[in-house]
Amino acid sequence: MIIETLVFVVVPLFALIAIGYAVAVSKLLGADVGHALGAFVTTIAVPALLFRTLATADLAGVSPWWLWATYYPVLFSVGIGAALLVRKVFRREARAAVVAAISSGFSNTALLGIPLITAVYGDEALVPLSIVIAAHIPSVTIVSVIAMERAVVIDGYTQARPMGEVMQAVVQKLLGNPIVLAIGSGVLWNVFGLPWPELLERTLQPVAKSASTVALISVGMSMLHYGIRGTLSIGVTLSVIKILVFPALVLLWGIYVTHLPGEWLSVLVLAAACPTGVMAYVFANQFGTGHAMSTNSISITTMASIVTASGWIWLLHALGY
């Protein structure tokens, strides 16, 4: 049964990534198309999917606190550990340490996590996954921006901005994020018990269903942009932390500390095992450091995850999850 899952569920997902990469390499479609597809997924398709899921799901008795208490203490611990490693062992500047923290902790849940997890555990896995994503973007963004503001000062590039000004800019950006808006709107729709019109269902369903396929192809096309560059040592180290250490710690924390139910814990482990998200490269590009470590982390974790994700699925199955 588990072999069948790995062959007929996981492999086709990564085959779509390979197709996207082949399309980009052959220049069958221009490089801008890959970016456009990714933008379509993150601004339209995934928000439609999450809004539809949360608006129509049975959320009775569903509490986010144990999910967050299992995932986020590990995420931030891993990020701090990676930052200290890059700062103290690899002797990089403070800004690069922040990029390392993001590279080791921020998962590509929107583009790869949703297709992978729903393919293995079905659409019902979208509820706990949506709850994790609901805090993923805001919490990591806020912490990363604050850390980077401090790192820029440590590196001697600028004076510290007032924290109120920093937080105002971050909140304004988050309030305009389509995924955050979709999750909040879906929860409110559900809480107020609003009816779900057939016309709305027929409109959103095909858009939501397109999310997985388009996301995977866009990931493949983006691989040509990121590639492998510079010294590999930091990128490989961060990649090991991201797709091996991070999910292992989530699994152990969920079993022995928070005692999370198996079906929810499985979702969190696979979310942690997802490749590094593009946010790492965005921060590296914005603050002018850590380009190689972020792109290497994205590329290595994406390529390796066909093996590591399969390994995590096998292990979870062996543990009865």
Helix-strand topology string = HHHHHHHHHHHHH
Number of distinct beta strands: 0
Tally of DSSP helical segments: 13
CATH class: Mainly Alpha
- Main sheet: strands, sense, barrel: none
> Quick check: average pLDDT?
88
The helix fraction, in percent, is: over 70%
Query: Might you state the CATH topology name?
Result: Na+/H+ antiporter like fold
**Broad shape:** globular
Low-confidence parts, pLDDT < 50 over ≥5 residues?
none
Rg, please?
Answer: 19 Å
Strand share of the residues? under 5%
Give a description of the structure.
The chain starts with a helix and ends with a helix. Helix 3 runs parallel beside helix 6 and helix 10 packs parallel to helix 13. The longest helix has 29 residues. 81% of the residues lie in helices and 0% in strands. It is mostly helical. The chain contains 13 helices and no strands. The protein is globular, with a radius of gyration of 19 Å. The chain has one domain: Up-down Bundle (Na+/H+ antiporter like fold).
Structural descriptors:
321 residues, mainly alpha, Na+/H+ antiporter like fold, 13 helices, 81% helix, globular
